[in-house]
């Protein structure tokens, strides 16, 4: 069974010339590879690649009441979407949301992690408190924040009344609704991000800080010139998953604003869901899904191209 | 090494999978096996919370009343989500024999041809439907033929805090008020409470806008709201809609109007404010009544849905949902589904249903039952929605909108309402809404081949 393949020698030689240690797959290797990778490839194909290509296919048709494709229209769905002010505003709204959530999540996460990394008695209490949102589910968070944003009995309303400030209509004013969703999402993400940052900051060698202290460098300078560069792989990881995660944000929007008011929080993912399962327009929502995929792929590419260069491994 | 050996591992995996699949199947068939020889009628419904409990009473009552069929109720989540489930499972073993589908999906269900028109069973059984509310029946019929049977039926009504009106010495609105009647009351509440109580709200909910048009005798689409042909154009930019929004705007200017937005909690916040005496007037389904009566410390006042000044109310369309019979099930199962529908329409069943939920009893004879007589003795205002339902003479404007894509249309209407409430131009918002609905209609009609 240990025989080497003799076909395709010519192109492989070139490779070997470049890279001497390159493995060549034998028939036996291929057999085992297919056994080990086969089941997961099969599942991936069935549940990931097939739906993906099916989505692409549907997006080029019109679908009838039952979601069946009836009329081939090519790129018409895409053209309609890109020229519709509603969809374009949805893209902007999503962008604002993603930038807002990513910025505040990382800033707050870093701040809290930096505070909690101090060696002080009782600091464990704060570490637990800051990471506690990790255990909160989306529905619980939504209900909790809905109480806070309630216009007649909410915490914020009571607070503004106490201070004799004008009441803010958190969920009926388009701008404030966006803030409400951003605040809630940041709060949700914070526990996890805090914990990851804390772990990263803890693992920075203390000798660096000791040397800096000897030099008499300020804490502020230490943070930006020691801590940040040293945790940059984590920072990169967190920013990538936060951006992708907030593009895909759905639960909080569905439970708090349902995309309103006046589509001010109608993010792409919510729009896709809405067009498919409320509007019954599967073609349109498939086209939207493809556009979202392209956008996320583009952002991920940008991050790997530009941000990764700045990462210290 | 044997050349068969390399097939051993995949074979073992395959066998393991097969064993799991088959034993799993054996278990599931065992649990699903019937306990007796009754024919099972699977019933999909969307009644959650307290209404589900009341619905279970109806189902249990039916199952106890005879020995041939057994209705198996299955909760399917929200009305909106259920529509897609019903359409997507048709023809499979999981599909229901009888299902509850809400008002605005009527056109979709009719065009799907997935159901057996109830008319067929009515004719075969010589079932007398004359006792069943004609406005409700006409909503679910196509050219005189009953497609589905209305079940949980509500009317939009206007609720006001009667105790508050008494406290400030305000004359209550008449039973069928005009817009200016309501403006007067709302303004007085706001002024006499020293701006502590808001006069009124109109929830950002497409249904209310549709009812305002129905009550003014104006249609939302061409072809008479789809009753005389497939709609091709929206006509929201009409006199009735404009008057409705001008009325709201007038109250906004007076300061007595409050909006609770359109978020997930808008409806709850509105109800809570009303119960806490922070809001004088709001409009909502009559199905809210049992909840309001249970929790209200104040006296509840109810009137018909308001109508424009200088004309008579045309009556509002019904809301709620109907029972449809799937045509992908054997004859005896379908017959069982119809038996259940017949049972659900009995005077006592409907009366108890109204008392429990606030949905209106559809059978005229229900009004004579002890259950409802007792209810009206305790809550005289509970009679008002039923009266509104009985007084309405069905016509194309108050029999619902037979248009596919009503769920999307509702969202477009709500968008228009929000932009007007936030100070946007009324005519522009209505024109925009027309344009968006037209686009959807064109796509839907093209995709379905309606020309």
UniProtKB/TrEMBL annotation, chain A:
Residue span, ABC transmembrane type-1 domain: 91-303
Transmembrane spans: 31-49, 95-116, 128-148, 176-201, 222-245, 289-307
Keywords on record: Cell membrane, Membrane, Transmembrane, Transmembrane helix, Transport
GO cellular component, one term: plasma membrane
SUPFAM superfamilies in the cross-refs: MetI-like (SSF161098)
GO biological process, one term: transmembrane transport
Topological relation to the membrane, as annotated: Multi-pass membrane protein
Cellular compartments annotated: Cell membrane
Pfam families from the UniProt entry: BPD_transp_1 (PF00528)
Main localization, broad class: membrane
Protein family per UniProt: Belongs to the binding-protein-dependent transport system permease family.
Protein name: Sugar ABC transporter permease
Organism of provenance: Companilactobacillus suantsaicola
From TrEMBL, chain B:
BP GO annotations: transmembrane transport
Pfam families in alphabetical order: SBP_bac_8 (PF13416)
Signal peptide (UniProt feature, chain positions): none
Cellular-component GO terms for this entry: cell envelope
Subcellular localization, as worded in the UniProt entry: Cell envelope
UniProtKB keywords: Periplasm, Signal, Transport
Metal-binding keyword on record: no
Principal subcellular localisation of the protein: other
Coiled coil segments of this chain: none
Gene3D superfamilies: Periplasmic binding protein-like II
Protein family membership: Belongs to the bacterial solute-binding protein 1 family.
PANTHER family assigned: ARABINOSE-BINDING PROTEIN-RELATED, SN-GLYCEROL-3-PHOSPHATE-BINDING PERIPLASMIC PROTEIN UGPB
Protein name: ABC transporter substrate-binding protein
